[in-house]
Structures are given as C-alpha cells and as structure tokens.
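Below: protein 1.
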Amino acid sequence: MQDKRFYSILISDTSITKLDDRVFSFISFEKFRLEQNFNLSLNRIDRNFLRFSSAILTEFTALNAGTFAENQDDDHSDGSIFEAFDGFVRLRSMSIAYFKLTRIPRSSLGRNELPSLKKLFLNDNGIEYLGDYSFYRLPHLEWLSLSFNKIRLINKYTFSFEKASNRVLRLELWFNQLNSQSFEKGAFLNAKRPLKLELYHNSLTYLPKEVFKEVLDADNLTSISVKGNPIECDCRMKWLLVDSDKYCDRVNDLICSDGLFLWNKTEDELNTRCNQVSKDPKYQFHFVTNGVSQSHNSLFSVLQHLKTNIIHVFR
C-alpha cells in the first residue's frame, strides 16, 4: 500500500482514550498536534503510532491546556512516550504539557540520536524526577524548558550531553521546587556547552560557590538568572562580589532581601550579615551526644564535631 503523506494534523477536543499503532498505518505527517483530548494519557499512546512518519516528522505537540487529563489521576506516565521518537532524524521541536509525566527516566532521549531537535518543552507536567543522561543524545538542542514542574534535585549527570557544542543552550527551570541545596557539585558541567540558565521563582537563598563558580568559569558565554528567588546577600555570596567585574554581567536579577542589588553591597556588609545570622538562635543547630547538649551555628560544624557518631540532630 502506498504511503499517504500530509503536511499536518490537529486532533482536538475528542473523547479518544488511546492511539495504537494501527490508527495511522501508511499515513505520514510533517507536523502532529494533540490538544485538549482529556481522556487520553501518555501511557495510552503506542510507541509505534507514528512509525510511518519517522522520516519526515518535524514537529510534535501534545497538550491538555489548563488541566491534567481527567483519566490521569492514577495514570502517571513512565516516560516511555519518548521511545516513540527513536530514529526521527528530522524532528526539530517537541512539546508535551499538562500530562502527568512525573518522571523522565534515565537515557529517555539518550538511546538514539535526534540530530535535528532544537526545542524541547516539557512544562506543566508535574515532573519530580530527572534521570541521568535524559537528554544525552540531543547534540543540537538550543532550548530546553522544564518550567512549572516539581523538580527538587539536579545531579552532575542530569544535563549530560554526549557531544560538546558551542551553541548556547537556554535551560528554563522556572517555578520548580529548587533550593540552594538542590544542586550536586558538578551539576551542569557535563552539558559541555554554554548555558543560559534560568532559575526564576524557585527557593534559592544563595548560589553555592562550589556549584556555580565552575559553571560560570567553564564558558564565558554562560549566564544565570535568579529572578524571584529569596536571595540572602551574606558571606556565602561574597565569591561573586569579589569578582564582580567577571560575573556582574552574567549573573542577573541578584536582588537581596532588602531590595538592593548584590553588586551595590560591600564585602564588609556581607560579612556583617553572616555574623548576625550566626548569632541568631533560629540559625543554631542543637545536638545531644553522651548526654551533653551543645550548639553550633551550622550543620557542617555539627557534622565536623560528631563525625560519624551522630546521636541526634535537630533544629
């Protein structure tokens, strides 16, 4: 049977509950769009449903704008939807939103190279987990959006790529559940490319030097934006101020809790702030060992003192 080729298809506001591998037999599309099919979950889309489009598909969009699909209350996607696009060499853009795609498994987009994919949008899916090497074989990716999810941890292999690139990757992590302890040392380094890292509206109180200094120093084109975070301008941020000539134009929206920019502060002001915090009882860590109660002004000093003999720690 001769393959029938179409430029695009839109499937919208239907009551379909699944897409199996027979629906589009011998039919191919350059652009495929699903919108507001609230009875359809990602788990009910067969991995071969677009197999006849593998040579020509350039855009794929699936979204249920405004709500999760009604049948998804107990139907969280395991991320297998990405297997449906293995070998799609012309795919340039993929957008999946408002599905319960809570996990991006290890190597989800790392099995077969997608050489043309430049834009990947996975917003508003309730994503909690990003597996290692999830985006590993996307050599020409330029825009990755993971905003409005529930991401809490970024490890050193989360954004690892197989091939280095000189292209700037825009990496959006707006409105997640990230804080200053969410980033493993080495996070972002394995991207092997300059980053435009957007961390808007999370819960970062400072930028850990051991994480972000090496990211910024790895490439002069890398920039970081922290708009909407409750930044505390204390001694933990001094590493940026000391080299303000180097970082001022590349770390954006650094507004302190008093409404002033970090760059308008002095080193003495940051040190003073740390001294005040260290004396504040609400920042004291108390522990009991061998029947003796002691206090420290940082959890690190508690661990240094107790080493492996921790009996009880509470704040």
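Below: protein 2.
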Amino acid sequence: MARQRDTITADNGLTNGLEPGEMPRDATTEHRLTLREASRDGDGNVKRGEEVYRLAPDMLALNQDNVRDSYESQRAIAHIEGLMAAYERGDYVPPLLVQPVANENGQYVIIDGAHRKIAADRVVRERGLKLRLSCMAFRGNSTEQLMYMMTSAKGLALDEIEKARACRKLVNRGMSRQEIASAMGVTVTWVDSRILLADAEPEVHQAIRDGVIEASVAIGIVRESGIRAAQVIRRLAQKARQQGRRRVTGSVVNGPRLSPKTANALLDSLRTAYEQLDDEVIGKVSDWEAQLKSEDMSDDELKNTRIEISGAALMQLVRGWGVVRAFEEQQQIKEERRIRRLEAREQEKAASQHTGTGEREAPENHHAGVTERAGPGNHHAGVRDREEPAGHHTGDGAEENDIFGVVPLAAHQRSGQAMALH
C-alpha cells in the first residue's frame, strides 16, 4: 500500500511528517512519493542503488592499466575541452567509476572517467573553479574492469589501436577469444583481427592513427605481409598520394571493384566462350600449361602457337573484353572528376589563405560532441559538480564534505591514509 499524504492542520499550519525541504500541499491531494520515500516503503518495488560520492579532483588518480594510451590526440583534446566547458557552465556530467579502496597515496583509481578527471584538473588549475566530481564505486576484478573500459559508452569511444590492445590484454589474462566476442557482442573473427593488429609494428599503429590508412585495410595487409606490413603501407601511401588520395583505402590496394552488373556480364561472356570450346582445344591448353611449368615451352613459343576455335567462342571473348573496357573507361571518368574536385578544393584553400579569410573558425558549441553529458534540463540539485559553499547540506541532511560518514574529506587529505568507499 502506498502511503497517503500527511495532512496540514488549517488552524496552525504545522506540518506532519514532511520530508526536509518538501513544500506543503493541498490536504485533499494524494501524496506523490519521492524516490527516497518509496525506497523506505518496504514493498521491494523501489530500492536505493549505489551511492554517489563527491570527490575533489586531486583525490582521483588515473589508471595505469587503462586501455587508453594517450590523452593528447586531437580528438581527445577536443573532448576534454568540451568537458571543461560543461564543468564551467555547471552542466550535468555522469559520475566517474572508481576502485572502492584508495591506493597508497590515498587516491581512488579511476575505472571510467579519465577525460572527466583531466578536464576537471584543468578547470581547477586554469580557471580557478572549485569542483567536486560525482563518483561511484566499481565492484569487479581487474579483468572485469578492463572489459568495462572496452564496452563503456559513457565517454570518448576507443580508437582501433586501443581496442586491439585491450583484446590482447584480455587474452593475456586468460580470456578466450569466444568469451571476449560474447562479452563485447562481436564475432570471433573481429577479435582475431584486433589481436593481429595489436601485435603489429608500432609504425602500423601510427599510420592508422595518423589517418594514412584505414584500420580494416591495415589488418588485411598485416595478415598478408606479416613483418613487412609497415613497408607495404609506406609504398601504398605513396601510391595514394600520387593518385591525389589522402589515405590508403581498399581501392588503392585492390583497385576499383566491379559492380554486380559488370561482373555478371563478364562472367556470362567467359562462361559462354568456354562452353564453345571442344575437348581437343581444352586438352591442348592443359598441355601448354604443363610445358610452361616444366619449361619445355617458352612464353615466346606459346605466343607463336596457333589453334583453331569457333567463331562463337571468339565473339564471346571479344564481348567480355568490351565489358572490361567499358568499366575501365567509366573508372577513368570518375577518377578525372575526383582529381578536378581535389584541385578545385586546393585552389579555394590557396585563395582563402591569400585573402586572409582562411582562418579557422571557432567551433560554435564546444560541448556538442561531449558524449558524457546528459540531456538538457537535467541540472538537478546535488548532481552538478560545481562545489557549493562550505557547510552546504545535501538532500540527505548531512554535511557535504562528510561524504564517507567517518571524518571530513579535508581530514582524509591531511592524514593520507587509505580509505574505502562503502
């Protein structure tokens, strides 16, 4: 049974059992329970979950076992700057996940939220803003922590190299490829390819991060070329530049792909031509292949050898070649158009730089790409990370800096002793 609203006596205005901060309502209106009230009803439908603690940024430590190996890439810097702007505005930012027991320095190691920590440090240092970050304790062993880092959707997505190295770490810790694939919702083939990438040379990793080559293309080259992969990528990158391309794609490696329509037309011509050949002709071709392999016949001798085939077979071969030529001409037209577009962009860029209008405009909204931010209007009391004045009371009626229920946060910082998030 849900509790009915406690009433207010009209003659004296005294409240009866209202929550701290709850405004009196009409005596005839049914009470709408707060989540805290509902969790105390005892029917089990609403239960309080993990507690959220609020820590000063210097109480948090980056995880040395983090799957991220760099916070200085262009995308990471843009993400951090977006978070800084969110902190300055007092926007809602999701809680960090931290290990429940402090390390030897009295700090809590971050499982998820490294960019939020770095952004908070910069805001405190560069803007003089006082912050406390919402944090929750993560329960799980080191392998579970690593898996969470890989699958978390709260922060900046891992790049291909970070995913690959995380897969390698999980395998080294005893997880099978099938277990990793099931946990991540991917195929075993995907896991195998990332482990292959993790074991590749650093030059291959850097080429992917620099945008020189697509990760999927690099994986194929590593699989085919092994330790020569970096050398092959360098050669293909030069080829791509000569073609006016910015990076190595599948078309640079394999050439243009035939459309299904073109491929079917070519296959039909070849199939029909082959069916027009008699057994004697096919037998002679097999003999020539054997003689070439045994070096009993040279290429020049084969060129001077004549054989009689039907006009129908020859016609189909010519038609097949016509399909190939039409495809090549179409690709040539596309390539010429692409080069013209590239040249036009380069000319526009040069013209804008010459007139002084080529300066990069500032982003309209730094926080637009912040994936850690909740929707607009979600700025509830007690959720913002901007520090309130000293002595401010939280919704629990406790002092804000007494978040551990033992001694104030400042006292913990002075003692430097290890603490646990209960």
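The CA atoms of residues 103 and 418 lie 6 Å apart.
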